[in-house]
């Protein structure tokens, strides 16, 4: 058995082998430094984080607006009728499985972790004067920022462009290889740019790892805090054990594949999530939660673009950049693999249907979930102790403290850990699937290469437990995603070209036939598709 076979690279060319080992090597070096010298890595990451958001925070905000406009145009124009995989493509998954996979890969444990962390942090450290929205309670303003960042327009900015790019270029237009660089060949279809293509794929892989690293790290430290505070067990040792068990479950999913492994894990996670949030709404401060959710929803909907573009130019600190720019950077890193995975499971669906599944339905669910979590931790009797825990121990301590204050806290803690575990497994499943696909240029990569990517990512999970400060993990998405943002506008342009060409080839002929038939019968033609 050759070494290439062990790594699942027996059919890979030299560039793909180099891509795997360079990206894996970078990942291992970061993990090793984090384990052996966590304080050094912590200081380096925090320094890089501050630099990127100070000098490029504006870029993430502007790019988000551009991508939002592009998504709206593609969905609501005539191109919304285009079917991913071609007009004759049939859906591969039933509706519930499709929704479950899209939801669990797209939103992870951040619903719980940042659903607690962001609103309580904003109440403790509000925006500088002048306030972005005057005359509203700080609790409602804090929760409305959460809606902006993880409900809308965040959803519409970052996931659809990647999903549409993969769906239109890889599956509808058709390419030889399943890579990010294949998208550039729409307008750079020549062998002269081989090194550029390879560089794009390398930047994409590193950006994906940045987003996944942050999600795993956040989840690992919240796991540890729940075990220590709620159940009083040695946090680090048991967290390693839990991640070991999750690793075995993950490897089982890898061997089962997309249809049996990832699909079933996603369905179970969604059911657990619905049970957990219904339970939290009942045992938590129910009336306050409902009222705050409605009030914050009004602030959010009435000031959506004001809050989305709030940059506080006259303030000395980088408050908006620490929140909005961070979120947009994380969306960019996370959206790379989410969009490509969503396109993979959405073959046979139209662009408009995919938007509904990716943005509209999850948006409603996320608004309800964040209303429940935000109302829980911002309620009288919760807000002060949770805020104090945030100051002393960061977001993991705040989550654990909120659980201890809640009736039936032990049961709630178990449910939250199960939901986070489900998100970790499904996110890892989907991430390694796409990492392996991009490496090998194959939409159905072999299980051996996927398993190696899973092992490499697991080292990051172990490393994050050693980092002394939770905030250090915030640096991964903006620092590692920044280089890839240079290619996003090119990918957007390539998507538009692909949509336009496909429309002309498949829909323009039927429109012309409609006009000819109408002219012969002297009837007013009714077009099936509107113009842009």
Automatic annotation (TrEMBL):
Organism encoding this protein: Natrinema salifodinae
Transmembrane segment boundaries: 18-36, 56-76, 96-117, 156-174, 195-217, 237-258, 270-294, 326-343, 355-379, 451-470, 476-496
GO molecular function, one term: transmembrane transporter activity
Compartment list: Cell membrane
Protein name as annotated: Choline-glycine betaine transporter
Keyword Thylakoid: no
Primary location class: membrane
Gene Ontology CC: plasma membrane
Keyword annotations of the record: Cell membrane, Membrane, Transmembrane, Transmembrane helix, Transport
Pfam families membership: BCCT
Protein's membrane topology: Multi-pass membrane protein
